[in-house]
Design brief:
single chain, mainly beta, eight-stranded antiparallel beta barrel, 1 helix
C-alpha cells in the first residue's frame, strides 16, 4: 500500500467533513420543531442574484505527461500520478433570469499541493512536476430548482508549476535541471450549489484543468536526456461554502423526509493513478499509468432519517468503467504497462446532514473492479513479449458529495467524488522480468435518482 493512498483517504475525509462542519455552523438557523420530518412539497424559491465570497477545500489529482520532444531517447513518455490538497478563496457574481436560469462569473485562487517525485523504470532518472497554486476565472450557467442549481462552468486557468529532470543519481550521471513558471490554459467542469439558509450556500464542483506544455529541460551527461512536460493536466474536486450579498435571505422549509428506497443513473469521468514496479527489484524504478475514461451505470439505496437533520443510508452501484491506457516507458520504450478496466461496483454506507432541501454527505465501503494488466519487459533486462493478467480486484471506496432537488419533479441530482483503492494486481512475467501494479482510481460522478413513494418534490 502506498503512503499516498492513506494521505488521500485522510484528505477526502477532512475535506468533506470540514464542509459539513462549515455548513452546519454557517447556517445556524433558529431551532426547528423536532416533530417527524414532513415530505417535501413545492420547492421554496430562492434569489441567486448578487455578489458572493467564499472558501473551498478539496482534492487535486495529477494527470500530467512528459516526453523527449526531440525524439532522441525514443517515443516513450513519463506519466505523473498522485493527489494532494487544494484549498482557497472564491468570489463571483450571479444573475438570475427567465426565471430559473442563473448565469455568473467566478474567480478563485488557492493552494494546489501536488508533489510526487519518482524514479523512472529505466535508466532510472528522477522526475517530478510540482504545483504550488492555482487560479481560475470562469463563467457559470445553470438551472435553478429553487433552493439549488446544477451548473456547467468554463474559462481560463493559471497554475504555478515546477518541472524537474534529474539523472544525477543514475549510473551514467548527469545534471539536475528544473524550471518554475506559471502555466496558462483552460478549466471546464460542473457542479451543484444549494442554499443553506440565510445568505449561505454550499457547493460541490468538479474541474478539469489543462495548462499546456512546459519548457524543454536539457539534462547534460554521457547520454543527454532532453525532457519536457508537454501536458500539464489536473482533475479537481472542490467543496465550498459561499456567502451571497444582496438578494432575499433564504428560509429553509420544514425538514424533509429522506427515509425510503431510491434508484437512478450515475455517470461521469474516471482517472487511474497506477504505479507498476518489479516486486523483487524495487530499485529498478516504476512505470506510472494515469489513464482516463468515462463511467456510467445504475445506483440504488435506502435512507433512514434518524433526526430532523441527520440521515444515514446504504447504497450500491454497478457501472461500466471505460479506461484503456498504454504507458510506454521513457527512454527504454519497449517496456510498456497497459491497464484496462471494464466494470466497477461499490457497496457503501452514507451519513449526511440535511440542510432542508439538500443532503451533504460522506460515504465509504467496499469496491470491486474488473482489471486487466499487461506488461512487456525491457530487452536490456531480459524482458520478453507482452503478457497479460485479468482479475477482479477488491478494495475500499471513500468520498462525499451534495444531493439536492433536480429540475425534474420527483428526482434529486448529486455531484460526488469517490476515491477507489483497489490494491495490487497479479504479478506477470515477461521473460525474466516480473512486474505488478498498484491500482488507485478517482471517480468524479453526477447522478439523477428517484425516491419511491412520497417524500421528495
Amino acid at each position: 500500500m502506498r503512503v499516498g493512498r492513506s494521505i488521500t483517504q485522510s484528505a477526502v475525509i477532512a475535506t468533506v467533513g470540514a464542509l459539513i462542519a462549515s455548513a452546519v455552523s454557517a447556517a445556524d438557523l433558529p431551532a426547528q420543531t423536532k416533530a417527524k420530518p414532513a415530505p417535501i412539497a413545492a420547492l421554496t424559491s430562492a434569489d441567486w442574484t448578487g455578489f458572493y465570497l467564499g472558501l473551498y477545500a478539496g482534492l487535486g489529482v495529477q494527470q500530467s505527461h512528459g516526453k523527449d520532444p526531440t525524439g532522441r531517447t525514443g517515443p516513450g513518455e513519463v506519466e505523473f500520478i498522485g493527489q494532494g490538497f487544494t484549498g482557497g478563496a472564491t468570489a463571483g457574481y450571479n444573475y438570475q433570469f427567465f426565471p430559473n436560469w442563473v448565469a455568473g462569473l467566478e474567480g478563485d485562487f488557492g493552494y494546489l499541493g501536488l508533489d510526487r517525485k519518482f524514479t523512472d523504470y529505466f535508466p532510472d532518472p528522477d522526475f517530478n512536476s510540482k504545483t504550488s497554486w492555482i487560479g481560475t476565472l470562469r463563467a457559470r450557467l445553470g438551472y435553478s430548482s429553487g433552493p439549488s442549481f446544477d451548473y456547467v462552468t468554463g474559462g481560463a486557468a493559471f497554475v504555478h508549476v515546477t518541472d524537474v529532470n534529474d539523472p544525477s543519481l543514475t549510473a551514467l550521471g548527469g545534471s539536475r535541471v528544473s524550471r518554475s513558471q506559471t502555466q496558462v490554459g483552460f478549466a471546464l467542469g460542473g457542479g451543484i450549489e444549494t442554499r443553506l439558509g440565510g445568505n449561505w450556500t454550499a457547493k460541490a464542483e468538479h474541474l478539469y484543468v489543462d495548462v499546456g506544455d512546459g519548457d524543454l529541460l536539457r539534462a547534460k551527461g554521457l547520454i543527454p536526456r532532453p525532457f519536457q512536460v508537454d501536458k500539464h493536466r489536473y482533475e479537481l474536486m472542490k467543496f465550498g461554502v459561499n456567502y451571497l450579498f444582496g438578494g432575499r435571505p433564504y428560509t429553509i422549509p420544514a425538514a424533509h423526509d429522506w427515509t425510503g428506497l431510491y434508484a437512478g443513473l450515475v455517470g461521469g469521468s474516471a482517472v487511474s493513478s497506477i504505479e507498476g514496479s518489479s516486486p523483487s527489484r524495487p530499485r529498478w524504478g516504476v512505470i506510472n499509468n494515469n489513464g482516463s475514461g468515462f463511467t456510467a451505470g445504475g445506483i440504488a439505496g435506502y435512507n433512514w432519517q434518524l433526526a430532523p437533520h441527520w440521515v444515514v443510508g446504504a447504497e450500491g452501484d454497478f457501472s461500466w468503467l471505460g479506461i484503456d491506457h498504454d504507458s510506454l516507458n521513457y527512454f527504454d520504450d519497449p517496456a510498456v504497462l497497459r491497464v484496462e478496466t471494464s466494470w466497477i461496483a461499490t457497496a457503501r454506507a452514507r451519513v449526511g446532514y440535511s440542510t432542508g432541501a439538500a443532503l451533504i454527505y460522506l460515504t465509504g465501503g467496499g469496491a470491486w473492479l474488473d482489471v486487466r494488466d499487461s506488461f512487456r519487459g525491457s530487452p536490456s533486462r531480459a524482458g520478453g513479449p507482452l503478457v497479460a493478467s485479468a482479475t477482479t480486484l477488491s478494495g475500499a471506496a471513500i468520498g462525499g458529495g451534495i444531493e439536492a432537488p433536480s429540475f425534474l419533479p420527483g428526482f434529486m441530482s448529486r455531484t460526488e467524488y469517490l476515491f477507489i483503492s483497489a490494491g495490487w494486481g497479479n504479478t506477470v512475467a515477461s521473460g525474466s522480468e516480473r512486474f505488478r501494479a498498484d491500482h488507485d482510481f478517482h471517480l468524479f460522478r453526477f447522478a439523477l435518482v428517484h425516491k419511491f413513494g412520497a417524500g421528495w418534490n
